[in-house]
Design a protein that fits this description.
A: 232 residues; Glutaconate Coenzyme A-transferase; B: 217 residues; 5 helices
Chain lengths: 232, 217, 232, 217
């Protein structure tokens, strides 16, 4: 088993216009920086992007929005991006807003072969429009469908050539659930290690979910809200 | 009249020992600064963090350790990290005892709106819809009125809903109110605020007992 | 936060006749040995036990079966236990056999607030009787309901007083999903450690799911099928 | 006629480089001993193990490291451990390319029965129902006939089903057969077994091409 490829461009081979992508990350934390840059360079268009957020104006998915490569966003929160808001309110960009927990669970379900599940989130709101409602334990729930993607684009901390991954801190977020749900799952890691270096008991994403892996470079890891307290 | 810190202080009095608590963005985040003596709680951040500590000291910020507001944070001993699906398993599965969040509007039947102003502002619901649909115990932290002076405690929400019939308690700059079948029950007044002031600032049905104590914060 | 109790008896306080229990483990691997012994000593009866297997005649849940403390078993495979088979075929014991993946997912769903989900497993078989069938992607699926328990009884390798847990090897199995689904989740560990000793990045079960934890003793860890190869 | 090892050897020829494979209890387990040169596969054990290695050497058995057959095993570098829900997420989500399992009966439409004999034997389905309902590629490994000499390749299963229309290939001690719309297609004969022998031992509809090569194992 050797899933290592040279770089983001090789990892994204076969990715075409109008495909559906999942992109890991929460805000700018744990986003696949190298792959996003490659998507800009490739110039693919008409993308449907499933990602919790849409980056900021000049970083993360904001870079793809600037170039109008995205046709539709499926997200839970997009409040940090003015260009996004402009494109959405003007109707240039289709947007499907989903409760964050439903988004995470729908990705996991897509990866786990669960085509649909009931959740209470969103009952009685716009989110429930057109969806089946059923009462369980006296409480109304709505039926949510699984999400999958042509490519799931993931950022991990360390990985090996089998595709085994570990994440660091809250850069984990959506990455493990999206890794499960890609027809092709592409991973960029800060550090490629030899098989056996990752303790099998503490692997976050088993390699079975991963098709291609490469060592990323020049990570900026921009901080969105730098908050500190004074030194004591 | 309370300021933002005052609202947070008052909400902190609601904390019970051993609770897991999710604090939303804004005023709710401040609650963590006022945990009462002798009370141990753990803070859950829905991006995948339990046992959230204070902001890091300058220079110790870690881009890989943020809260749901995208702020750099620290972790306390006994904390843990997990993925987004597990995080919302905690929330949806009612393992988190208290949710504190902000709102644009709350209705007398417990409906809440806080994620969208049609045609003008659409930031998205983030984790709020999951939180309000699942939490047994939801406290809303907000100003009693909006910038134009109009009440945010309404007969019915006018904005798109975040959740229905879910809010149990509201703490504003003017009052503490419980949401019951017959409307907002006035529990406490903020220092220097009269029952009359609160009546004037509340559009939804307000139930006022004979005696309304002033908060002690 | 201090969830530490002295022993299995204190951990199981409040556990009464006719309750529903989940018990972690796969075969005899990762079973809560101390708690099972305590259940025998407590003499509680009429139990409904959700557990992938039913132990062997003289170990694991077999001990409770011998004493006829179990009214109903919910399991996926019970092939290693003669007394079990005798009680089932004679009708003394109610048995609900569930596909293993559905069992695991139903426990996770119970813990995750998902009241029901669709799965292809069991379609067209006895397991599907009385269950709703729906086609997704051209393939029939059945609707399965979440499982929860009055007590989930879990075995972990190490844990701290917050209830954070790690498991060792394949002793993990059903333990993490059942830990999520107990109204009261009780954990026995081989080693209690101080908070902070477990790397927060590699905790398998976050403490939020756990109510009581204690250090177990005298683990037998019996091997069901001792298979080896000759030394080279 | 093949013995158990022979059936396993023949199935091993079906393995493709890079596949993840789940092997059931019994004959399927033996397949791991005959992986062709130059082929890398990883074995998944549904109790929560990927990258399963051979049995441990004597004295190195670890009670905390078993396979789905409850046998002590080892792990290879690059392996991983996970919980039961994640394990079946792999299976149900079709991340495992091949499932090999035993059967009591297989029908000409691909139905399989292997978990229950009413009134006599009820061991349970274990993971088999999830595996057969989800796997794209299922090979059944079994004897062609039962102890009484009756065919196990039937027009219709008589025992309670494990899955419907799911079996793609059957490898028995007598033959390799593909299950297609019009029945069992005879692909290969075991050494020393005639087409006539196979016809006599097969109750279900058998489609026999002009030439049926003998297996090379």
């Amino acid at each position: 088993m050797n899933k290592i490829v040279a770089d983001a461009h090789e990892a994204l081979q076969g990715l075409q216009d109008n495909m559906t992508l999942m992109l890991g990350g929460f805000g700018l934390c744990g986003i696949p920086e190298n792959s996003i840059s490659a998507l800009v360079e490739m110039g693919v268009n008409g993308l449907t992007c499933i990602s919790n957020n849409a980056g900021v104006d000049d970083f993360g998915l904001g870079l793809l929005l600037q170039k109008k490569q995205i046709k539709k966003m499926i997200s839970s929160y997009v409040g940090e991006n003015d260009e996004f808001e402009r494109q959405m309110l003007s109707g240039e960009l289709e947007v499907d807003l989903i409760p964050q927990g439903s988004l995470a669970e729908r990705c996991r379900a897509g990866g786990a072969g669960i085509p649909a599940f009931f959740t209470p989130a969103g009952y009685g709101t716009e989110v429930a429009e057109g969806k089946e409602v059923r009462i369980f334990g006296g409480k109304p729930h709505i039926l949510e469908a699984a999400l999958t993607a042509d490519f799931a684009i993931i950022k991990a901390w360390k990985g090996d050539r089998y595709g085994n991954l570990i994440y660091k801190g809250t850069a984990r977020n959506f990455n493990p659930v999206m890794a499960m749900a890609g027809k092709i799952t592409v991973v960029e890691v800060e550090e490629l290690v030899e098989p056996g270096e990752l303790d099998p008991n503490f692997i976050h994403t088993p390699g079975v979910f991963v098709q291609r892996i490469f060592q990323g470079k020049n990570y900026e890891k921009r901080i969105e809200q730098r908050t500190t307290r004074p030194k004591a | 009249m309370l300021d933002r810190e005052g609202i947070a202080k008052r909400i902190a009095q609601e904390l019970q020992d051993g609770w897991y608590v999710n604090l939303g963005i804004g005023i709710p985040t401040l609650v963590a600064n006022y945990i009462p003596e002798g009370i141990n709680v753990e803070f859950q951040s829905e991006n995948g963090l339990l046992g959230m500590g204070p902001f890091p000291v300058e220079g110790a910020e870690d881009a890989d350790l943020i809260n749901a507001g995208k702020q750099t944070v620290t972790m306390l001993p006994g904390g843990s990290i997990f993925d987004s699906a597990t995080s919302f398993a905690m929330i949806r599965g009612q393992h988190v005892q208290l949710t504190v969040l902000g709102a644009m509007e709350v209705a007398e039947n417990g409906d809440i709106a806080n994620w969208k102003i049609p045609g003008r502002m659409v930031k998205g619901m983030g984790g709020a819809m999951d939180l309000v649909a699942s939490a047994e115990n939801i406290i809303v932290a907000m100003k009693h009125t909006n910038r134009k002076g109009a009440s945010k405690l309404l007969k019915a929400c006018t904005l798109p809903l975040t959740g229905v019939g879910c809010v149990k308690k509201v703490v504003t700059n003017m009052a503490v109110l419980e949401v019951k079948e017959d409307g907002f029950h006035l529990i406490e007044r903020a220092p220097g605020v009269s029952v009359e002031d609160i009546k004037n600032a509340t559009e939804g049905r307000l139930v006022v007992p004979d005696v309304v104590p002033e908060m002690t914060i």
